Amino acid sequence: MIKELVASSAVWGVLLTISAFSLGSWLHRRLKKAWCNPLLFGCIFVVSFLSIFDISYTEYKASASPVSYLLLPATISLAIPLYEKWELLKRHAAAIIIGIFSGVLTSLGSIWLLAVLLKLSRQQYATLLPKSVTTAIGMDVAAELGGIAALASALIILTGIIGGLIAERICKIAHIKNAVAKGVAIGTSSHAIGTAKAIEMGETEGAMSSLAIVVSGILTALLAPLFAALL
Questions:
Q1: What does the longest C-alpha to C-alpha distance in the chain come to?
Q2: Sequence-ordered alpha helix ranges (H) in the chain
């Protein structure tokens, strides 16, 4: 019956994606635990569904593609909280840019070191390099450098989920209390998924994290080819 539904419906992937995320959100509200991330549980539900009913990822991707089209508009809409904190941005512009630049260098440099220590192949290295930027940019960067775009997407999502889960705790452990610093750190390291957590933490954190997504994405696209040449 499920196979027949998949074959006859062009939008079953969209419905599955929305249903999985809604179920994940319900669990998050119900359990009120940081590890109950809606995206994480949504991914688990989708993977479980596809595995149980023996449906290929290719079929799911083709049917769920309309959801992917919303990724860029959703990312751009994060400019709204940034606009609302424009004066704060101008006041701390130098520190914000230096912070984002340092974060991007740390991300790329740590991947290079990991690749050297573990003797990763060029393809594996290129796939890992853009792990900390938004999927819309990271997949293209990975593909351009010879990596696997689909695997890069999974790694980017995993990075964002982990960042969202531990961001607040890391800030407490490191005694980071400044809202601007929190937002820059979260956005630079865990892109849009982390930004969702930053918005929960406060308006300033959300605005600065939104800025960090854009700037870190641009810097990664520019610097990743240079780091790719090091291996």
A1: 60
A2: 2-8, 12-31, 38-52, 57-68, 71-76, 79-84, 86-91, 93-118, 122-128, 135-144, 149-173, 179-201, 203-228
pLDDT (0 to 100) of residue 149: 87
**Residue range 76-122, pLDDT digits in tens:** 776 777 777 788 888 888 989 999 999 999 999 999 999 999 999 99
Rounded to whole angstroms, the Cα distance separating 53 from 63 reads: 16
Nearest to 134 by CA among 101, 100, 104, 160: 160
Residue 70: Cβ within 10 Å count: 10
Q: Find all residues with CB under 8 Å of 33, minimum gap 6, and list them.
A: none
C-alpha R_g of the chain = 18
Under DSSP, is residue 62 helix (H, G, I), strand (E, B) or coil? helix
Note the pTM of the prediction, 2 decimals: 0.77
The answer to whether 28 touches 36, Cβ cutoff 8 Å, is: yes
> Tokens for 91?
């006041």
Whether the Cβ atoms of residue 211 and residue 181 lie closer than 8 Å to each other:
no
For the residues 68-73, what does the mean pLDDT come to?
74
Residue 67 clears pLDDT 90, i.e. is over it: no
199, pLDDT greater than 90: no
CA separation for the pair 231, 218 (Å, rounded): 22
d(CA 172, CA 124): 33
